[in-house]
Design goal:
With 381 residues, this protein is an alpha/beta fold. The chain has eleven helices and 16 strands. The structure holds adenosine monophosphate (AMP) and magnesium ion.
């Protein structure tokens, strides 16, 4: 784990997300060129950026996040052509994906170019690269004049930040500058695709859907579900770098326990309600993350003081994704003792939503039985 650090003053500066002011971008870029860190918005979540070609800057990123050095960083570029500066080889299928999805929430794993320090890739001979679409991210990387390594701007294992305030809550005193460009539109991290494996595979589902990727690369393999009891601890596997750090099982944890329900829709609703009423009866403060279709059934819970949040309908997984992390943080900040959560179908961005929820639940899902209203606790497959 990266060591402790000296406190710095953290300034938050507003920036127009569509047309960022040149002087603000230049100030942030100067910090990056000097090897300092800057938090900036991307279309997925806020990133904690540093010069990707400088080992010392990368070290600062790990330290500011409290992230283990076994967990590699994503390198962000401003133009497709810069891929060749950071990757040793760019296969034809990488160009095809880049052509179709960049700029956007897709990260490609390629052979590491020698200019990228091994610290950035956690010792791996592969590098993760992405070209973000957010105008602030693009302007900043371009002005910095070099690739920018940027993991999510949260403390290690906390929920990723989708607003500058989330990033400030986690990193106040640990970075000099946060660019506030408002809430990030996609709301979950990028999809990571391994192009170094014999068959391309999704290592982490995210803001680019499997369905969309398959239109371009039909052979692409879906992600394997998070494994229980393996990789929960950084460097747990004899200090080996994670193939994908997003695969750490407990990676997106709210600071309060989260119980994830699954099963037929009506059964999930009934189980959420029963569990909430039971806990309210015990005097617990209960938060519920649901869909708008659940609201009517959950009204009695709300009337007894449960905080019920339903960011969108079951048919709108992209809207659920956009609101997911902010909703988890809001429930956490409201001081609930437990978050009860429904499952979302793994369709479109629902695949990423369900992945993050499962991790937040520590890999356990509670299967709601259709008739009896009973629930059985099982491990995720
Ligand atoms: P984040 O903190 O969201 O930026 O997480 C970093 C992500 O980068 C992880 O989830 C990984 O999927 C990915 N990653 C970075 N470098 C590599 C690499 N060399 N091989 C595989 N995955 C990587
Ligand atoms: Mg992260």
């Amino acid at each position: 784990m990266a060591d402790e650090m000296k406190a710095v003053h953290t300034e938050v500066v507003s920036v127009d997300p569509q047309q960022p002011a040149a002087d603000v971008i230049e100030r942030a870029a100067a910090l990056l060129r000097a090897g300092e860190l800057v938090v900036f918005p991307t279309e997925t979540v806020y990133g904690l950026g540093g010069n990707a070609l400088q080992e010392e800057a990368a070290r600062r990123i790990f330290t500011a996040k409290g992230r283990p050095f076994t967990d590699p960083l994503i390198v962000h570029i401003a133009q497709k052509e810069e891929l060749e500066q950071v990757a040793a080889a760019v296969p034809e299928r990488a160009w095809r994906l880049a052509e179709a999805f960049w700029p956007g929430p897709l990260t490609l794993i390629l052979p590491r170019g020698e200019r990228v320090p091994r610290l950035v890739t956690a010792g791996l001979e592969t590098v993760a690269v992405r070209l973000p679409s957010h105008p602030v991210a693009q302007a900043l990387i371009r002005a910095a004049g070099r690739p920018i390594a940027a993991p999510s701007a949260n403390r290690f294992k906390h929920v990723s930040p989708t607003t500058a305030q989330h990033a400030l809550a986690d990193l106040n005193g640990r970075v000099p500058l946060i660019l506030d460009g408002g809430p990030t539109p996609v709301g979950v991290e990028s999809t990571v695709v391994d192009l170094c494996a014999p068959v391309p595979r999704i290592l982490r589902p995210g803001g680019t859907s499997l369905e969309a990727l398959r239109q371009v690369l039909p052979e692409i393999e879906p992600p394997s579900p998070p494994r229980i009891g393996a990789g929960d601890e950084p460097g747990g596997q004899e200090g080996q770098a994670q193939r994908s750090p997003g695969q750490l099982l407990i990676h997106y944890s709210p600071t309060v326990p989260l119980l994830l329900f699954d099963g037929e829709d009506a059964a999930q609703r009934a189980a959420l309600k029963a569990e909430a009423l039971k806990r309210l009866e015990e005097g617990k403060r209960v938060g519920i993350l649901a869909a708008s279709e659940d609201l009517e059934v959950l009204r009695p819970c709300q009337e007894r003081g449960a905080l019920v949040r339903a960011p969108a309908s079951l048919e709108e997984p992209a809207r659920v994704a956009a609101a997911l992390f902010a909703t988890l943080r809001a429930l956490e900040e409201a001081g609930v003792d437990v978050i009860l959560c429904r499952s979302f179908k793994p369709v479109g961005l629902g695949l990423a939503v369900q992945d993050r929820l499962r991790r937040a639940a520590g890999g356990r899902v509670i299967l709601a039985e259709a008739e009896s209203g009973e629930s059985a606790s099982i491990d995720a497959p």
